[in-house]
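We store sequence with structure; for instance:
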Amino acid sequence: MSEMPVIPASLLPTDGRFGAGPSRVRPEQVSALVDAGTSLLGTSHRQAPVRSLVGDIREGLAEFFGLPEGYEIILGLGGASTFWDSAAFSLVRRRAQHLSFGEFGSKFAQVTDKAPHLERSEIFRAQPGSRPAGPEPREGVDVYAWPQNETSTGVIMDVTRPSGTDPDALTVIDATSAAGGMHVDINHTDVYYFSPQKNFGSDGGVWFAAVSPAALERIAEISRSDRWIPDVLSLAAAVENSRKNQTYNTPALAGLVLLDEQVRWLNGNGGMPWAAERTATTSSLVYDWAERTTVATPFVTDPEHRSPVVCTVDFDDSVDTARVLSVLRANGVVDVDPYRKLGRNQLRIATFASVPEADIHALLACIDWTLENALS
C-alpha cells in the first residue's frame, strides 16, 4: 500500500476537528474540567456545588437567549432523542404536526406518529436538501414541530410561530445543532430544546429547553390527567427538578462543566448576535469556495435555506470523496464525512461557534491541496 500523501504543515488548521457532532471542545473548556477535577467531579449532584453549577448554566442560557418573561430553562437526561419521547408523553395532547426534511425531524415525527395514546401525526415531508413550505393550521393539532437546523442535510427552517392556528397550540423547535450558533426569537417558540454537543461544545446525554408559560401549563395539565408517564420521561418531573437546579437522576458532571464554560465564553463575547455573525461568516467561506470550485457545489441549492452551522457540499463523480476523506484524516483533519444515510459524494463541514475563521480557511486550503495532489 502506498504511503498517504502529506499535506504541507503550513496549510493545516490549528485544530483539525470539523465534525457536526460531537463538536470540537475548546482548550479553555478542558482547563475548566481539570480545575473541577479535585472539587466538583465525583461529588453528589444533590449538593450545593453541583446545584450552583446547574443554576449558573440556566442563568447563562437565559441571558444568551434573552429569555422572555415567564419562560424557564429546564433540563433532563438522555439527549434530544429522549426528549422526543418525553414530548410525546408530556406535550402533545392529541395530535402533532411535523415538518420532516432530514433524519432528525423525521425521527421525532415517527415518535409521535407511533405513540399509542396519540392520534396519527400529520407529517409534511421534503427531499433531503430542500424543506417543506411550512406548517399548516389544522383543527385538532395541538403541537407544531420542526428542526431549526437539520443536522443531516444542512437545511434551515424559519422559527416563526404559525399564524391561524389554535391559540392553545404549541410551537416546539428542535435546536440541537442551531442553539448557540444561530439567531432565534424565543417569543416565536413554546419549547426550544437542544442537546449541548454542537455549538455549546459539551457532551451528549442531556437536554435543555427554553419553555414558555403555555408549555409549562400544558405539561402540568397532562401530568394531572390519567395518562401514564414513566417518571424518567416526565417533563413535569423535569420542571420540578430544574427549579431546584438538579435533574431527576444522576447527570454526567463533566458535560455540565464543559457547557458552563462555553456559555460563559459565548456571553462574554457578545452572546447570540456575536455567535450568529461568527457562524454566518465561516459558513459563507465554505459556500463561496464550493461555488467557485469546478468539481463542487453546495448541496442545498437555495442560498436562503443553507445552514450557517452545518455546510453540505457535493462533489461531482470525478472526485473520489472517500479518498479525500482518508487523506484529510491521515493529516489530522477529521470528521467532514457526509451523513451516512444520505449516501452522497459529499462533505459535511461544521462551522459551529467554536470554529474560528482561520481554521476554515486552512480546511479549504487542505481540501484544494488534496484535490490537486492526492487523487491521481
The first helix runs from residue 27 to 36. The mean pLDDT is 96. The radius of gyration is 21 Å. Residues 12 and 362 are 6 Å apart (CA to CA).
